[in-house]
Amino acid sequence: MDSNTPVMFITANVGSIFENPTVMLKIWTEEFLSTVSKLNPKFIALHCQEVGGKNYEHCTQPVEEFVKLLIDSEELRLFDKVRVFLDEDFSKAENFTALGNFYFIHESIEDLLIWDFKEMNFCTVFGKEVYSGSIEDVPIKEKSKFPQDLFPECKWSRKGFLRTRWNLNGSVFDLVNIHLFHDASNFIAMETSPSIYSVTRQRALEYTLDRFQSDNHGSVPFFLFGDFNFRTNTQAVIERLVDGLNPVQVQSPNSNSVQKLLYRKDGEEVVLTLGKKEFVHSNHQQIFIENAGEWLKEYDVEKDSFDGILFEFPISFPPSYPFEEDAESGSHYTTTRCPAWCDRVVLSSAAKNLIHEISKDGSVEYELMGKQTCMGDHKISSRLLFGNVLCRLKFKSAC
Question: What is the value of pTM for the model shown?
Answer without folding.
Answer: 0.94
